[in-house]
Design a protein that fits this description.
- This protein is an alpha+beta fold.
- 26% of the residues lie in helices and 18% in strands.
- The longest helix is centred in the first third of the chain and has 14 residues.
- The radius of gyration is 40 Å and the shape is globular.
- The relative contact order is 0.08.
Length: 499
């Protein structure tokens, strides 16, 4: 069903305005507006009401515009550049050059028998980072030749002079890696739906006289989970004869009951930056359309017991835990939460999974869109990490608890505070020569400062202290005088009790 949904959405994106209006009016929807509004309305219709009648109508409109030719001349027209499948429809068979004496093909049969065997009808899924230039070998099944578990399946092919020039004149993606390559793809032999790349066990690929690199396994951090191997096209260009000479490819694979197909393509490889440029040109959803989607999600439903008044959306990318740069989401996902388009493409360039980081559903490149409303919000806000969409399509910022606490502390710091008196300092207790305080007899401190009374002193110690203050006959005997007496509570008189 997912494959039919993607195919129907691709057809809708290739419709003219008249086709879109016919589709929307047949389903009782408004047919007014610009073409981009009609496309968006039709895509939402396909997502919400993917019924057999709707799919039949879409297919009839598509076939009325692109009629099929009879027989094997029928070729499906290419969709727009963004939606173009990396491998075009199979062209009619051409007579292959006669192989050298004794050469075998991938199915291990003789050359005469192989020429009569047509390729399988297996189709491989489109890959956004690859665009097919030529098909060198259509998907052909690997057939075991004996009962051994390890099988060798060889084949030969030749490059034309124009293909050689395309490889030589292509730019370098990085040192020694050309943007135009010859790649080998392997998948299961299954004609029910387009197949993803899948390697057989014990795979090894030998091109001419050298073995080419096959991606290894990714170790798993979870206990009990086996490591996974990323299956992707294998670049065999560095080991080819860049001339019209014959190239020989031998695939070694483990025969454990499953059936596999191999195919060879001349492709152009894109970088994540180039895919991002395509995304910005073709897949930006306007702010008005995003507001309509918010209003549709928050529209009051009388049959629902829970009324939703707002939707919270984080401005932090779930991939890298940083603020969003270019907010992106998938058309088929139900959530409005976005992820960063640049980081998402870079991660799939290194390890292709094409999975939504929010809900873990498939996120193919042709269904990615840039959220125009959230892009405007990111430009207007700098210190906000979360917002809430309201029922009328507007939004409001939501401040985190840390920010609220920081604001409260900032308000408290701006409030004037009363001076505090340190009761534990000697000056506060009246024993500093520069700040004498009032004793129990009622004397006032110098400078009009408020008097501090030492409550730990008894009357006897006060009298002794008062007598000593007026007697200054002999200062030399003060060094030999005994230490001052303690109060009746056993504390030094410079300390104040905290009771």
């Amino acid at each position: 069903m997912a494959a039919e949904l993607v195919e129907a959405m691709n057809m809708v994106k290739s419709f003219r305005v008249s086709d879109l209006q016919t589709l929307l009016s047949s389903m009782g929807r408004s047919k007014s507006g610009l073409k981009q509004d009609l496309v968006g309305r039709a895509l939402r219709l396909v997502q919400s009401e993917c019924s057999p009648e709707l799919l039949k109508t879409i297919r009839q409109l598509y076939e009325s515009r692109f009629p099929k030719a009879p027989g094997w001349l029928a070729q499906r027209p290419r969709p727009p550049e963004l939606l173009q499948a990396p491998y075009p429809a199979r062209s009619p068979p051409h007579p292959a050059p006669a192989p050298p004496q004794g050469a075998d093909y991938l199915n291990g049969l003789a050359a005469t028998a192989t020429a009569a065997t047509p390729p399988t009808d297996v189709k491989l899924v489109p890959l956004p980072f690859y665009k097919t230039v030529d098909v060198l070998l259509h998907p052909t099944e690997l057939v075991p030749q004996n009962s051994e578990k390890l099988q060798d399946s060889p084949c030969t092919f030749e490059l034309s002079q124009s293909q050689v020039e395309q490889i030589r004149n292509s730019r370098e993606l990085r040192l020694g890696v050309k943007s135009v390559q010859v790649v080998l793809r392997i998948c299961y032999t299954d004609t029910s739906c387009p197949q993803e790349d899948q390697y057989p066990p014990n795979i090894a690929v030998k091109v001419n006289q050298g073995y080419c690199h096959v991606p290894g396994y990714y170790p798993s951090n979870k206990p009990g989970v086996e490591p996974r191997r990323p299956c992707r096209p294998i670049n065999i260009t560095p080991w080819l004869h860049l001339s019209t000479a014959t190239n020989r490819v031998t695939v070694t694979w483990g025969n454990f009951g499953k059936r596999y197909c191999v195919a060879l393509y001349l492709v152009q490889v894109f970088t994540s930056a180039e895919l991002f440029s395509k995304l910005k040109r073709f897949s930006v959803e306007s702010a008005e359309r995003c507001r309509e989607l918010i209003q549709d999600k928050l529209r009051f439903d009388p049959d629902s017991e829970i009324a939703t008044t707002g939707l919270r959306v984080s401005l932090i990318c779930p991939l890298v835990k940083m603020r969003l740069g270019v907010p992106c989401r998938v058309l088929t996902c139900a959530h409005l939460q976005c992820f960063d388009a640049v980081f998402f493409l870079q991660m799939n360039e290194k390890k292709p999974t094409w999975t939504c980081p929010v809900c873990d559903k498939p996120a193919p490149f042709e269904l990615l869109i840039i959220d125009g409303l959230l892009s405007e919000i990111l430009k207007e806000t700098e210190d906000v990490e979360e917002i809430e969409y309201l029922a009328d399509g507007s939004w409001r910022p939501i401040r985190a608890e840390k920010e609220k606490e920081r604001d409260r502390e900032r308000e408290r710091s701006n409030t004037p505070e009363c001076p505090l008196l340190d009761m534990c300092s000697p000056e506060a207790n009246g024993h500093s020569p520069a700040h004498s305080s009032t004793s129990l007899s009622g004397k006032t401190a110098v400078g009009g400062a408020p008097a501090v009374v030492d409550l730990t002193l008894d009357s006897s110690s006060e009298e002794e202290e008062g007598g000593g203050a007026g007697d200054s006959e002999d200062t030399e005997d003060s060094q030999d005088s005994p230490p001052p007496k303690r109060g009746r509570y056993g504390y030094d008189k410079d300390l104040v009790t905290a009771y």
